[in-house]
């Protein structure tokens, strides 16, 4: 859900993560699993930045190849 909210957001949108906050775990079926919202958000943003850089590099490569063949 966090990933979807971030990917759907526009430049001026605000995303509110209300819930766990200070707790560093999430309890699932009575078992505590490590969970840090800040870490999750940072990982998602880093993935998105890498995707953008890959697309930029691919675009530049394709543009360069097109210019060579003209």
Keywords:
2 strands; 70 residues; 56% helix; mainly alpha
Order of helices and strands, N to C?
HEEH
What's the end-to-end separation, in Å?
A: 46 Å
State the strand order across the main sheet: 1-2
Unreliable segments of 5+ consecutive residues: none
What Rg, in angstroms, do the CA atoms define? Answer: 19 Å
The number of helical elements comes to 2
Q: State the major sheet.
A: 2 strands, antiparallel
**What's the average pLDDT?**
87
* Approximate helicity band: 55-70%
Give the overall shape, derived from the CA principal axes: elongated
Q: Which structural category do the helix and sheet elements fall into?
A: mainly alpha
The tally of strands reads 2
Tell me the β content.
5-15%
Describe the structure.
α1 (2-8) packs across α2 (37-68). This protein has 70 residues and is mainly alpha-helical. It is 56% helix and 11% strand. The chain is built from two helices and two strands. The chain has a two-stranded antiparallel sheet with strand order 1-2.
Write the layout of secondary structure elements.
Elements: H1 2-8, E1 25-28, E2 31-34, H2 37-68
How would you summarize what this structure contains?
By secondary structure, the protein is mostly helical.
